[in-house]
């Protein structure tokens, strides 16, 4: 995919966020790594979705330098940089890890509510298990010093910290809640990251409604969780149709 094609793809992924109802005002964005992994395209800061065009996407290096574009990139750019660096390290060090090129951040209502409650979203049923292998984790709150100095960069740090301390694989758990803030999700492309953002909001709503019916609802049995997750993911997956060349 050349740079122009990627611009069109990233713009379309951002517009899909809006179509899926995950965006209020301009609260949300999608980014995706370039083919060489040295830079990424991201939504410009504060630009209304109805006015967005492929040419508006901003090309940013992993050092934070704007390489192309007249707009300021999303304010979440430093968070994305830290996540991309982490994913690139995992690609080199973790066997079988597929680089997560797309990242999404939204303020979708129900996922934000879980983040504000400082609660992970437990795996209560098979819909959740189809997309996330276990609970959707929540980070610790940022310290006053982390907020004061490099807030967005430190948001990336606490996400990475949560995955490291929990020994979580970002491929198996393609999303997280930042305490008091909201959800981030990722995938092999911007489009896949958007799908994971949609799934995250859906399971957040389902978990909330389940606990409204029964506050003591149990977690899904692990053997059912494993069945549903691995029938969609991994070398023995059998859900859906085979892609050309498989």
Explain what the structure shows.
The chain is α+β, with helices and mostly antiparallel strands. The chain has helices at residues 3-19, 77-93, 109-116, 126-131, 144-148, 151-165, 190-213, 222-232, and strands at residues 28-33, 39-42, 58-61, 66-68, 102-106, 175-178, 182-187. A 7-stranded antiparallel beta sheet has the order 4-3-2-1-5-7-6, with helices on both faces. α2 (77-93) packs parallel to α6 (151-165). The two termini are 21 Å apart. 39% of the residues are buried. The mean pLDDT is 95.
**Structure annotation, total helices:** 8
Q: Which structural class is indicated by helix and strand composition?
A: alpha+beta
Q: Compute the number of strand runs.
A: 7
Cα end-to-end separation: 21 Å
Q: pLDDT average, as an integer? A: 95
Instruction: Summarize the main sheet.
Output: 7 strands, antiparallel
User: Roughly what percent helix?
Assistant: 40-55%
Strand order of the largest sheet: 4-3-2-1-5-7-6
Radius of gyration: 18 Å
Shape estimate: globular
Give the percentage of residues in beta strands. 5-15%
* Helix and strand sequence: HEEEEHEHHHHEEHH
Q: Name the poorly predicted regions.
A: none
Structure characteristics:
246 residues; alpha+beta; 42% helix
Summarize the structure.
The protein is built from eight helices and seven strands; from the N terminus they run αββββαβααααββαα. The chain is of the alpha+beta class and 246 residues long.
Task: Please write out the topology.
Layout: H1 3-19, E1 28-33, E2 39-42, E3 58-61, E4 66-68, H2 77-93, E5 102-106, H3 109-116, H4 126-131, H5 144-148, H6 151-165, E6 175-178, E7 182-187, H7 190-213, H8 222-232
Antiparallel strand pairs: 1-2, 1-5, 2-3, 3-4, 5-7, 6-7
Helix pairs in contact: 1-7, 2-6, 3-7
């Amino acid at each position: 995919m050349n740079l122009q094609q990627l611009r069109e793809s990233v713009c379309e992924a951002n517009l899909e966020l809006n179509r899926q109802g995950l965006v209020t005002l301009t609260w949300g964005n999608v980014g995706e790594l370039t083919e060489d992994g040295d830079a990424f395209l991201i939504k410009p800061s504060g630009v209304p979705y109805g006015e967005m065009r492929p040419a508006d996407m901003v090309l940013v290096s992993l050092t934070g330098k704007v390489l192309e574009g007249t707009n300021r990139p999303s304010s979440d750019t430093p968070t994305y940089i830290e996540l991309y660096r982490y994913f690139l390290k995992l690609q080199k060090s973790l066997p079988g890890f597929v680089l997560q090129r797309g990242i999404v951040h939204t303020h979708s209502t129900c996922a934000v509510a879980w983040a504000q409650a400082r609660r992970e979203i437990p795996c209560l049923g098979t819909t959740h298990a189809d997309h996330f292998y276990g609970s959707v984790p929540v980070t610790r709150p940022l310290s006053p010093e982390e907020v004061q100095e490099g807030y967005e960069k430190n948001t990336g740090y606490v996400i990475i910290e949560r995955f490291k301390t929990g020994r979580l694989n970002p491929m198996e758990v393609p999303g997280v809640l930042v305490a008091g803030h909201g959800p981030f999700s990722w995938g092999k492309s911007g489009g896949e990251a958007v799908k994971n953002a949609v799934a995250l909001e859906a399971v957040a709503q389902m978990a909330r409604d389940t606990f409204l019916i029964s506050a003591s609802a149990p977690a899904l049995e692990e053997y059912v969780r494993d069945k549903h997750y691995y029938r969609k993911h991994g070398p023995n997956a059998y859900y859906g149709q085979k892609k050309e060349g498989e």
